[in-house]
Amino acid sequence: MERKDGAKIYNYYKKFGYKTVVMGASFRNTGEIKELAGCDLLTIAPKLLEELATTEGTLTRKLDPANAQKLTIEKLTIDKSTFDKMHAADRMATDKLKEGIEGFSKAIEDLEQLLAKRLADISEPAGAAR
After folding, report:
1. Residue 38 DSSP SS3
2. Which parts of 26-79 fold into alpha helices (H)?
3. Of the candidates 46, 39, 89, 43, the residue with the CA atom closest to the CA atom of residue 64
4. pLDDT at 105
5. Cα(125)–Cα(116) distance, rounded to whole angstroms?
6. What sections of the chain are H helices per DSSP?
7. From the first residue on, what is the mean pLDDT of each consecutive set of 10 residues in the chain (130 residues)?
8. Taking the model in full, what pTM does it have?
9. How far separated are the first and last CA of the chain, in Å rounded?
10. Which residue in 25, 27, 36 sits closest to 62, CA to CA?
């Protein structure tokens, strides 16, 4: 998700009091992380955490539930048809959803292969030739 989209999502949910946790992920650099400072949760790669840990300076909170309450944001009423149209029109959403589903599918296939190999290994009698 692009960082501006992350802030937009965060502010929308906090403005209208949705009971959810917003989590930023898939950061490419520390600048993107800094743009979501204050988000409920962030998943940050070890390399970027290291970079942040060695950076001097002040980190300004960009996202805050109290500030979100003050924003002028239109509340959306969305049915399935409207959602489908909005989702289809948002290339980032469709691409990332497709990428995510394909990634999880590949991970499941890889896990199934590893488990099958492991089961075969532990089922094989001790000392049996391969």
Report:
1. coil
2. 30-35, 46-53, 65-70
3. 39
4. 94
5. 16
6. 3-15, 30-35, 46-53, 65-70, 80-89, 91-123
7. 74 95 91 95 95 94 96 94 92 85 93 94 72
8. 0.66
9. 47
10. 36
